[in-house]
Design a protein that fits this description.
The complex is a heterodimer of chains A (about 475) and B (about 240). With about 475 residues, chain A is of the alpha/beta class. Chain A is built from eleven helices and 24 strands. In chain A, helix 5 crosses helix 6. With about 240 residues, chain B is of the alpha/beta class. Chain B is globular. The chains are: A alpha/beta (about 475), B alpha/beta (about 240).
Chain lengths: ~475, ~240
């Protein structure tokens, strides 16, 4: 095997910075900062009060430290909580008014926003630092009664829906980072699918961090009304910087009777360099409530970026016969760390959950699956199936599986399977002997390992995700 | 085509091949027989470039020294190894693997890339010659295959990739008579003046179906006797004890 050490970052195509004048809130986490954000966004009083309540609560909370990846203390007073390109300050009404520099940025990221070149069948909301800069295909969606816009816009135009559902899945008081987000969240997407409507295209949000020393506090809220269906995908990138940047998002999903939400993430935040310097701290709270009977929420995540990924997209299976699914690929290379998994809370009768987790660890990275399956007393005849597979490449990386399982009734069944394996020299030899070079062989084997999860992604993104899986591991076997 | 001179191979302190000379010309079929531990599979691995061996001596393929050439480059030059224990690769669809491999090898030969439809047609055609069921192509590579299916899959790959030198490492082991015949027919139908075979086996029975031009006895890392196909029959009677 070759001894070459490849700088994985040469493959981080999204590490550039856009030189654009930005408008920021003063540094620091204070009541004034929160008031500043709320004022900038022309928010109603109830929302400002809500934020301040969260802030008050935050002061009594401690940062959690039970997770596997440790990190240096974050100085919350040394961060910017709001940064927006100046040109977006007066929100452009159409794409023609969007700053060309921003359009150029998204074009470079492979997300063309202009009318002619948009991805067909995919509507995109583009979030740059703290603000949404554009949303495509709005007109067509509106015809069906679908609302797809930034959360800031939804607060202005659909306050009743926002008021009803915001914080209904992740309460204000939830935990440190979720509460921090509730106090200072800036932008994200809002989706509402009316009853019995099947959303005709993929909805997608593209998050970009650009400004330095700035935290991104995304807030996304998706509501699928009775009998509706939506597939939503988010992508994320950030410039290469020596500093660690915080992305603390809250994502709430609500599925009413017979509704289905499919939520996919392709996370490719800057992972830091090969020495572990820089990279995003991706501390995210994602939770979905299957509130209605026969509802379904399916999370699919491909986590390849970030210095630290710390998230547990979860499902609260409240409605009878509701279904929760979690499909995950977490790839860590160099010094990256991931502590990720899911929580499946079974409350309704005959609820089902399925967890398929594929962790791949290379270099000096550490990868933990942590998950909770909690079947409550009244959730009779419920089922869970969990499969956690870990793949190790080299001798310096780690893989851990930490399942928590609670079953409080006797009619439910929980299954848990876990495997850990090393990438197999014999498999590589076999592929090489058939003419595939080392990178091609690794890509093939790892994509095979991840197949059950990759299959869950919307077609438009599956190919990209496969490439990303390969790129993330380049040079990892040496 | 292949010329080995004083070839030595060792793993760490342990020397396995201890000065081996062999010359295989185009169109020839050579069989290597020998007891367990004589270095037969090591020879197959060394020829295909597997990592982990210390190599000395000369290893030439079509006049070119192979020593520094990695596994995949050797495969592209036309060296094919039918594995004794074909490797399982979960999640990888068999026909996708065949397509990827075939186009990679074709590209290296300067042949044009075949599209999916043409590739599938070719694969199915060759598969049916080997009595391989089409369903088998949509299964995960070698996962849950029976011994016979795995070996047939190796021969299928050989026929698709059209190597110049095919090394068959105990392809006959674990095969019933019917499968053995199919595998042998597969080899015989591919045999031509332009390509050569190195057949590694314990037993003479495969050589009833594939007639070798030369039979070599390998013992303790060296070729200790060379003869024609009669030598194989002789060995079947007397065993390897005379060569230990």
């Amino acid at each position: 095997m070759s001894d070459k050490i490849i700088d994985t970052n040469k493959e981080y195509k999204y590490g550039f910075t856009t030189d654009i004048e930005s408008f920021k809130a003063p540094k620091g986490l204070t009541e004034d900062t929160i008031k500043f954000i709320s004022k900038e966004k022309k928010e109603p009083k109830w929302l400002l009060d809500w934020r301040l309540k969260a802030y008050k609560r935050l002061k009594s909370l401690k940062e959690p430290n039970w997770q596997k990846p440790k990190y240096p203390k974050i100085d919350y007073q040394d961060l910017y909580y709001y940064s927006a390109p100046k040109s977006v300050k007066d929100k452009p009404n159409s794409l023609d008014e969007v700053d060309p520099k921003l359009l150029e940025t998204y074009k470079k990221l492979g997300i063309p926003l202009d009318e002619q070149k948009r991805l067909s069948g995919v509507a995109v909301d583009a979030v740059f630092d703290s603000v949404s800069v554009a949303t495509t295909f709005k007109g067509e969606l509106t015809k069906k009664g679908i609302i797809f816009c930034s959360i800031s816009e939804a607060i202005q135009k659909h306050p009743d829906l926002v008021k009803k559902y915001l914080g209904s899945v992740i309460p204000l008081t939830d935990h440190y980072f979720a509460t921090l987000n509730s106090a200072v969240f800036t932008d994200g997407s809002f989706v509402y699918i009316p009853p019995n409507v099947r959303c005709p295209m993929e909805l997608s949000t593209y998050f970009r961090i650009n400004a330095s020393q700035t935290g991104q506090f995304e807030r996304t809220l998706i509501i699928a009304d009775k009998g509706s269906y939506v597939s939503y995908l988010e992508g994320c990138t950030a410039p290469m910087r020596d500093e660690n940047q915080l992305h603390a998002a809250n994502v709430e999903l609500v599925a009413l009777d017979d509704a289905e939400i499919k939520y996919s993430t392709v996370q490719n935040w800057y992972p830091g360099d090969e020495e572990g310097k820089g990279g995003i701290y991706n501390f995210v709270t994602k939770r979905g409530a299957c509130r209605g009977k026969n509802s379904k929420i399916s999370w699919t995540q491909v986590e390849t970026g970030s210095a630290i990924t710390w998230k547990y997209p979860s499902c609260i299976l409240q409605g009878d016969n509701s279904v929760g699914e979690f499909y995950s690929i977490a790839i860590t290379n160099n010094h990256q760390k991931a502590d990720t998994g899911t929580k499946m809370i079974h409350l309704g009768k005959n609820t089902k959950s399925k967890i398929i987790s594929k962790g791949i660890s290379a270099g000096k990275a550490d990868n933990t699956y942590r998950g909770l399956v909690d079947i409550n007393k009244k959730a009779t005849n419920s089922r869970n199936y969990t499969q956690c597979d870990s793949l190790l490449m080299g001798n310096k990386c780690g893989a851990h599986t930490v399942p928590y399982i609670k079953n409080k009734n006797s009619s439910s069944i929980i299954e848990h399977e876990a495997t850990t394996s090393k990438i197999n020299e014999e498999q590589l030899f076999y592929c090489n002997q058939r003419g595939l070079d080392q990178e091609e062989a690794i890509s093939l084997i790892v994509n095979g390992f991840c197949k059950e999860v990759l299959q869950q992604l919307p077609m438009e993104f599956a190919v990209e995700a496969q490439k990303l899986v390969s790129i993330s591991l380049e040079g990892s076997v040496g | 085509m292949l010329e080995l001179k004083d070839l030595k191979a060792s793993i760490g302190e342990k020397s396995i091949i201890k000065g081996l000379n062999l010359h295989i010309k185009s169109g020839e079929v050579h069989a290597i027989m020998g007891p367990n531990g004589s270095g037969k599979s090591t020879l197959a691995n060394v020829l295909s470039g597997k990592n982990g061996y210390e190599i000395s001596g000369s290893l030439k393929f079509e006049g070119q020294n192979l020593n520094e050439i990695p596994i995949d480059e050797r495969a592209k030059k036309g060296i094919f190894l039918a594995f004794q224990y074909p490797i399982e690769i979960p999640g990888v669809n068999t026909s996708n693997f065949l397509k990827t491999s075939l186009n990679t090898i074709r590209k290296s030969k300067g042949e044009k890339n075949l599209d999916t439809i043409a590739l599938l047609k070719l694969i199915k055609e060759k598969a049916s010659e080997l009595n391989i069921n089409e369903k088998f192509l949509s299964r995960q590579l070698n996962v849950g295959f029976s011994g016979g299916e795995k070996k047939k899959n190796e021969i299928l790959q050989m026929k698709l990739l059209e190597p110049k030198l095919a090394i068959l490492d105990e392809t006959d082991s674990g095969l019933d008579i019917d499968a053995l015949r199919i595998v042998a027919d597969g080899v015989n139908s591919y045999k031509s003046k332009k390509n050569s075979f190195l057949i590694i086996t314990h037993y003479q029975r495969l050589l009833d179906y594939i007639k070798p031009d030369f039979v070599h006895v390998l013992s303790d890392g060296k070729i200790v006797k060379t003869g024609n196909s009669n030598l194989a029959q002789e060995l079947e009677k007397t065993g390897y004890k005379n060569f230990n």
